[in-house]
Amino acid sequence: MSIRYKIFGAFSVVILLACGLAFYGIRGISTSGDLVVRLYDGPLMGINHARSAHAGLNEARLIMQRSLIGGATSEAVARFEKLIRNIGEDLSVVRERVQSANVKVAREKAESGLRDWSAAGLKILKPTPGGLTAIPTSYSLMQQGDDAVAAIDDLVELVAAYGFDFRTEAEASVSAARTAMFGIAIGTALVGLILAIAFAYSLSKPISAAVRVAERVAAGNFADDIAVRRRDELGRLLKSLAVMQASLKARADQDLALMSSKDETHAQQINRRQRIEAEIEAFRSTFTAALANTNRMTGELTETAQTLSNCARRRQAIRRDGVHCRPNFG
Predict the structure, then answer these.
(1) With left for phi above 0 and alpha for psi between -120 and 50, is residue 132 left, alpha or beta?
(2) What is the domain partition of the chain in residue ranges?
(3) Which of 207, 290, 300, 315 is 20 to 30 A from 190, alpha carbon to alpha carbon?
(4) Dihedral sign (CA 283, 287, 288, 292)
(5) What are residue 200's phi and psi, to 5 degrees?
(6) Which residues, other chains included, contact 177 with Cβ-Cβ below 8 Å and sequence gap of 6+?
(7) Count of H helices and E strands in the chain?
(8) CA 52, CA 87: separation in Å to the nearest integer?
C-alpha cells in the first residue's frame, strides 16, 4: 500500500474519531437541553401551579369565612367561583405536566376535596331560588376546607418531591454523559496516539535502515544484506538502494581486480628493471675489471717495450763498444 494511502487512512480514522466525539458531545448537549426543557415544562410548572392552587384555595377559604360571618355579596360569590375555576385549571396543568402515580392519587384526592368543599360552600353563598332541603353546617364546611387544604398541601409536597427526583435523575444523566464523553475523549486521544506512534514507527524504521545503508555504502562497505518486505515507496527506496549497492559492489570488485592486475604488472616491471639493473651492474663490473686488466697488461707491455728498447739501444752501444747485455724481463 502506498504511503499516501496510509496517511489518508490514518487521518481518516482520527477525523472519524473526532467526528464521533463531536457528535456525542452534540448529542449530550441536546440531551441536557431537553432535560432542562422537561424540567421546566414538567416539575417546575407543576409545582408552580400546585402552589398557585394552594394560594387560590387559601384565598377562597378567606372569602368563604368572610361571607359566613358578614354575608355573601355578588362580588364575593363571583370572586369565589373564579378562584375555584382557576384552582381547577391549575390542577389540570398539574395533571398534564406531572406524570407520577403518587402525584395522580394526591391530585385526584385534592380535586375531590375541592369539589365537595366548593359545592358545599356555593350552597351557602349562592343558594337556589327554590331553597335547599339541607344546608351544610359551618363546622362541616370548615372541616371540608381543611381537608381540601391538606390535600393541596400533600399535592404540593409530592410535586416538589417529584421535581427533586427528576432533578436528581437529570443530574445523574448529565454526570453519566459527562463521564462517557470524558472516557470517549481519552479513548480517542489514546487511539490517535497509538496510530501516530505506529505510523511514525512504520515510517522511521525503514528510513533509518536506508540511512544506515547509505552511510555504510558511502564508507565503502557493501556487505549489508538489504531485506525488502514493503510494497510502498519506502520498499521501492530500499530495493533501489539494494540495486545501487550491488552495482557499486560490482564496480568496486572490477576496480579492485584492475588495480590488482596493475599492481602485478607494476611488480613485474619493477622485477624486470631490477634484473636489468643487476645485469648492467654485473656487466659494468666485468667491463671495469677487464679494463683494469687491460690497463695493467698495457702497462706491462709498455714497460717491456721500453725495456726491450733500452736493451736494443744498449746492445747497439755494446756492439759499438764490444760489450754484450742480457735483457731483464723481471
Answers:
(1) beta
(2) 3-202, 231-330
(3) 207
(4) positive
(5) -65, -40
(6) 28, 31, 32
(7) 6, 0
(8) 7
Is pLDDT of 8 > 60? yes
Cell 735483457, located at residue: 327
Distance CA(194)–CA(177), nearest Å, equals 25
User: Topology of 3-202 in CATH?
Assistant: Four Helix Bundle (Hemerythrin (Met), subunit A) (1.20.120)
User: In terms of Cα–Cα distance, which of 182, 233, 188, 197 is closest to 13?
Assistant: 188
Q: Are 64 and 141 in contact (CB under 8 A)?
A: yes
Position 242 pLDDT exceeds 80: no
Please state, for a pLDDT cut of 90, what percent of the chain lies above it.
1
CA-nearest of 226, 225, 220 to 252 is 220
CB 159 within 8 A of CB 98: yes
Q: What is the mean pLDDT of residues 197-226?
A: 75
Of 92-96, 134-138, 162-166, 212-216, the range with the lowest mean pLDDT is: 134-138
Cell reading at 205: 524504521
74: three-class secondary structure by DSSP: helix
Q: Give the mean model confidence (pLDDT) for residues 321-330.
A: 52
Burial of 46 (0-12, 13-18, 19+ CB in 10 A): buried
Q: Residue 235 burial (CB < 10 Å; 0-12/13-18/19+)?
A: middle
Residue with cell 391549575: 90
Q: Kindly indicate the confidence band of residue 252, based on its pLDDT and cuts at 50, 70 and 90.
A: confident
Contact in structure between 35 and 266 (CB atoms under 8 Å) = no
What are the b/e assignments for 270-309, b being 16+ CB within 10 Å?
Answer: eeeeeeeeeeeeeeeeeeeeeeeeeeeeeeeeeeeeeeee
Report the alpha-carbon distance of residue 163 to residue 176 in Å, rounded. 20
pLDDT greater than 60 at residue 324: no
